[in-house]
Structure formats: C-alpha cells, structure tokens
Amino acid sequence: MKVRKNPSSTGIPEDSPGFLLWQLANAWQRRMRQVLAPLGLTYVQAMLLSALVKLEEQYRKTSVPITQGDLARFCRADATMTSQVLRTLESKGLLERSRGNDARARLPNLTVAGRSLALQAMPVTQAIDEEFFALGQAGGEDHGDDGLVVDLRALWGRQADQGYDA
Fold first, then answer.
1. What is the pLDDT at residue 117?
2. Which of 1, 46, 69, 161 has the most CB atoms less than 10 A away?
3. pTM for the structure as a whole
4. Is residue 115 over pLDDT 80?
5. Where are the domains of the chain?
6. How does pLDDT run across 55-73, given as a tens digit for each residue?
7. Residue 95: helix, strand or coil by DSSP?
8. Cβ of 47: how many Cβ atoms within 10 Å?
9. Helices of type H across the chain
C-alpha cells in the first residue's frame, strides 16, 4: 500500500488530518440524521438493526442463538451502549430480548417491524455512504471504489494494534 504523507502543520485547521476527519465525521453524521429521521432511527439504531439482520443470516444454519455480546462484537461496539440502544429498540417494538441458558445473556430477535425497518434503512445508509465518500467524483484523487475504505481500515487497524480503539 502506498503511504501518503500528512501535510506539514501550518497552524491552519484545514491542514490538520484530525480536524478534517472531525469535520467530515460531523458532516456525515448530519447527512445520516437527515435520511434516517423519516424512519425514526438514529444511525446507531439502524446499524445495530442491520447488523442483526446480517448475523441472523449467518446464524440461520446453526442452532446457536445470537447474544447481545455477539452483536456488540460483530459491530465492534461498546457492550453497554449496545444494550442501551437495544433496550430503546425493544421499547419501539423493533426487537424482543429474551434470556438464554446463561441468565446473564440477552438474546435479541428482530420483530417483523424491526426487520422491515432494517431492510428500509440498509439501502438508505449505503446510498449516503456511496454518495458522501465518492472521492473520484468530487474532484479528488481516485483510488478506486475501495481506496478510502482500504485506507480507513489500515488506520483503524493501526490504532487497534496500539490499543486506541478500546
């Protein structure tokens, strides 16, 4: 992978990768809020519902139930935050949470309404990602469709290796 150098610090915020990332993350979050508001979901709620759809597909051939912990690990999300968001989704009637053999484990299961809403949210969030991160169309350097994702995964992996993602 070709490593790009960060611009030297000039004291100008736009020259700071951290500043730019912060601004882009804020802009992306605003856009996601706009498109998910009509569905009555936050991005985290949509992500967890969509991830549960994907996990259910993976687990379908097994008799192993999906736990909240499985979902949190799959999303690389904080377990406490996952539990809180699932509680909210449960109160909206989008999923049910039962107890497993281990009394501490909660087993989230999508309701019909939850599955339907997840399937509505998935293409909406994907379209925003494709639109928002289409660098080649924005006059930026084109690294192919997956260039930005590859770069972000590399950065994320480096931070995870150093323990900064915890």
1. 98
2. 46
3. 0.79
4. yes
5. 34-137+144-161
6. 999 988 888 899 999 999 9
7. strand
8. 19
9. 17-36, 43-59, 68-75, 79-91, 112-132, 147-161
Between CA 26 and CA 32 the distance in angstroms is 10
Helix/strand/coil for 25: helix
Q: What value does the mean pLDDT take over residues 31-59?
A: 96
**DSSP class of 97:** E
Q: CA–CA distance from 102 to each of 57, 98, 107 (Å)?
A: 23, 11, 10
What CA–CA distance (Å, rounded) separates 55 from 24?
Answer: 29
* Angle, CA 83 vertex, CA 80 and CA 89 arms, to 5°: 145
Return phi, psi of residue 11, to 5°. 85, -5
Per the listing, tokens 């690389």 go with 76
Specify the CATH number of the domain 34-137+144-161.
Answer: 1.10.10.10
Q: What letters, b where the CB count within 10 A reaches 16 and e where it falls short, cover 132-158? A: ebeeeeeeeeeeeeebeeeeeeeeeee
Q: Is 112 exposed, middle or buried (0-12, 13-18, 19+ CB in 10 A)?
A: exposed
Q: What contacts 31, CB < 8 A, 6 or more positions away?
A: 128, 132
**The pLDDT of residue 44:** 97
